[in-house]
């Protein structure tokens, strides 16, 4: 079951979200340490939950355990990540940055991966957005996340946003 959580509900289940984040991004091939999951729950999530347009969708398994989530918010110039995009990819900045939906995270616990949950979370997050465009960054190499986004209609805008990530965009209207 996938449900949308408002900012207060998202913050109230930050321990569960931290667990999913740690399981997904601590897995082999991603290798983020426990401190990254702590930063996500203690700093990143509260900051982003306070931004305009915040939307988080969460999936629970039959036992009620959180198995995945995705979230984003309205990206604007003056925010750290939007300004980073403007600096790194100025050729796309005027058309894409500001007033866009910033697709921030998609995480699924390893036991639930490969069953369509990531795609379902993506679709639930992107449904009914008021934005005309969306941006996300993901791994630059070939792995499940960028393949999912390309299947969902995202286009590569800048292949080397960082040494390990690429920038993708999607027109929503």
Q: Could you outline the blueprint of secondary structure elements for this entry?
A:
Layout: E1 2-5, H1 7-12, H2 14-25, H3 34-49, E2 55-60, E3 66-75, H4 80-88, H5 90-96, E4 100-108, H6 117-126, E5 133-139, H7 144-151, E6 155-158, E7 165-171
Parallel strand pairs: 4-5
Antiparallel strand pairs: 1-2, 2-3, 3-4, 5-7, 6-7
List the strand order in the largest sheet.
1-2-3-4-5-7-6
DSSP helix fraction: 25-40%
Terminal residue distance? 27 Å
User: Whole-number average pLDDT?
Assistant: 96
Would you report the number of β strands? 7
The helix/strand series, from N terminus to C terminus, equals EHHHEEHHEHEHEE
What's the number of structural domains? Answer: 1
Summarize the structure in short:
With 173 residues, this protein is of the alpha+beta class. The chain has helices spanning 7-12, 14-25, 34-49, 80-88, 90-96, 117-126, 144-151; strands at 2-5, 55-60, 66-75, 100-108, 133-139, 155-158, 165-171.
Folded structure, characterized:
The chain is 39% helix and 27% strand. The chain has 173 residues and is an alpha+beta fold. Strands 1-2-3-4-5-7-6 form a 7-stranded mixed sheet. The longest helix is centred in the N-terminal third of the chain and has 16 residues, at 34-49. The chain starts with a strand and ends with a strand.
